[in-house]
Amino acid sequence: MSDWDAARYHQVSDPQRAWGRRVLDRLSPATGERIVDIGCGTGRLTADLHALVGASGRVTAADRSWTMVTEARRYLPADVSVVQANGTEMPLRSGSCDAVFSTATFHWIPDHATLFAEIHRILRPGGRLVAQAGGGRNLERLYTRTAVLSAEPEFSGFFTGWQDPWTFAGVADTRDRLTRAGFIDPDVSLESTPTGFPGAEQYAEFVKPVCLRPHLDRLPESKRGAFIERLTRMAAADEPSFTLDYWRLNIDARKP
What we know:
single chain, about 260 residues, alpha/beta, Rossmann fold, seven-stranded mixed sheet, 11 helices, about 45% helix
């Protein structure tokens, strides 16, 4: 799969930032804390986190995408450490952080058991994990349509061997994995967050870099426009139109 278009993502990711602000409120960072942001993207929320912990705190921002890391380094203050890491292998000492924060990232990591074990390792005793990702039936309507469209003769040859690149975990599985990793008092829930757009252009400009990058990677340039146009027409007929059926998996847990 191609790397992210970080600059474009920065421009269109307002829904992710709005959700992330609420997760940041749940985290309630204190001045002086050492906090790791896993899946920092271009650093929009990391900048907010940095302001909250202040000069006496320390923020480490991690992302597996080199384009995101590069953009974040341009965007964030120099005292934020930005590293390329995927969450399952963090270049940090055991027990070295007070909290781990993450939004819109865990569904891109297939192995949640290893992910939670690594987060548990880098947290100090009493440290907390506060995160949100896609979960449950996230984008079910959109991805049901892409599956049908990908099987049509015009597109099917480009999707041979396709496997979904995301892991939309459920509440029970996530709670079990957190407990097995050593966390206590895991609070896990699913939240419906339908997200609408004013028209076809705004809808298409959002789904192309955010939701459909793995699909468009498979298609030649000559086929991408038709693929997007078909999906956009389907979304126009929805009630309400141009609305994505997002579900967010909220996670709060603590290391004993």
